[in-house]
């Protein structure tokens, strides 16, 4: 077949690509029955206050426990679920599961006021049913609305049919908090940012990644983070740094006024029981 682009090149048969595509097709086809068979699991990663080191929130991150391929990461199937439309039901399942878990944590550890942060895909953000789904998950779980945060990427926000402000206002009307995920990797439409009813910017990993000791390039990365933190604070938003991996990054981010951090340094995504254990030990006197 002639290659796309029409420059007279011919696409060569690429066995690796063919294998990848076959796997994707098979995975996409298996998604609905995987949901029915309860093969998905949610792990939770701590989001920690840089001010006092306390766990403020956990981000819910989906995984697929595939019967033959093992544990699959969301990057391997969320895109497929978006394409097939299954993301609407899968996303609702994550929302229900995460709110139920957080509702239990809130009941057992009310003083922790642990928030759960759930990722929404572009299709979910544009779905008119999303507000009812969020309200339903809150109702079913008894989780106070301000203990649920929804993470939306900039592209998901901009994909809302030219009505991002209205779409996000409807979401915010449920009382939940809204965060922009991977901030700085998308459109970064600063004009919109000012109008959107959001609470938090999650600073994309690559910015934090660039902050390394003894690396001259890190000066630039640090200036960008500094500017973004100032921008966020000027707009009344809090900032969460993603992919925090080293004590040096914690020190620099804290010095720049970043509010909270998430990453390997604080803890990797874990089963609910591990979060329960963290909440329990935080409650013990002297900790
Ligand atoms: P994200 O929302 O930006 O989530 C953060 C990703 O960074 C997670 O990858 C997390 O495991 C990873 N991470 C954590 N600590 C570190 C660190 O120290 N260094 C680095 N380099 N990475 C770290 P994960 O779990 O593979 O998820 C990938 C993406 O899949 C997420 O990115 C999110 O966009 C999407 N995703 C996950 N769960 C859901 C879901 O339930 N619904 C939707 N729509 N998307 C989801
Ligand atoms: Mg996220
Ligand atoms: Mg992110
Ligand atoms: Mg991401």
TrEMBL record:
Membrane-spanning residues: none
Residues covered by the EAL domain: 24-283
Top-level taxon: Bacteria
Residues in coiled coil: none
Protein name: Diguanylate cyclase/phosphodiesterase with PAS/PAC sensor(S)
Source organism per UniProt: Asanoa ishikariensis
Lineage, broadest ranks: Bacteria, Bacillati, Actinomycetota, Actinomycetes, Micromonosporales
């Amino acid at each position: 077949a002639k290659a796309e682009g029409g420059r007279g090149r011919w696409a060569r048969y690429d066995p690796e690509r063919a294998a990848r595509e076959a796997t994707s097709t098979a995975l996409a086809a298996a998604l609905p029955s995987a949901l029915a068979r309860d093969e998905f699991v949610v792990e939770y990663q701590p989001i920690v206050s840089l001010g006092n080191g306390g766990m403020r929130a956990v981000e819910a991150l989906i995984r697929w426990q595939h019967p033959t391929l093992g544990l699959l990461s969301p990057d391997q199937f969320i895109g497929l679920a978006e394409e097939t439309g299954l993301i609407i039901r899968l996303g609702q399942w994550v929302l229900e599961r995460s709110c139920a878990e957080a509702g239990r944590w809130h009941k057992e550890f009310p003083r922790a006021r642990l928030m759960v942060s759930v990722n929404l895909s572009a299709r979910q953000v544009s779905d008119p049913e999303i507000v009812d789904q969020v309200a339903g998950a809150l109702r079913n779980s008894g989780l106070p609305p301000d203990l649920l945060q929804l993470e939306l990427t900039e592209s998901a926000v901009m994909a809302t049919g030219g009505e991002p402000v209205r779409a996000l206002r409807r979401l915010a009307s449920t009382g939940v908090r809204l965060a922009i995920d991977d901030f700085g990797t998308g459109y970064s439409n600063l004009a919109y940012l000012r109008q959107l009813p959001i609470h938090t910017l999650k600073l994309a990993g690559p910015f934090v990644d660039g902050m390394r000791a003894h690396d001259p390039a890190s000066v630039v990365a640090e200036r960008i983070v500094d500017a973004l933190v100032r921008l966020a604070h000027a707009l009344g938003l809090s900032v969460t740094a993603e992919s925090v991996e080293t004590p040096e990054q914690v020190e620099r981010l804290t010095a720049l006024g970043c509010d909270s951090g998430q990453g390997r340094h604080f803890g990797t995504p874990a089963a609910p029981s591990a979060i329960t254990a963290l909440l329990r030990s935080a409650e013990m006197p002297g900790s």
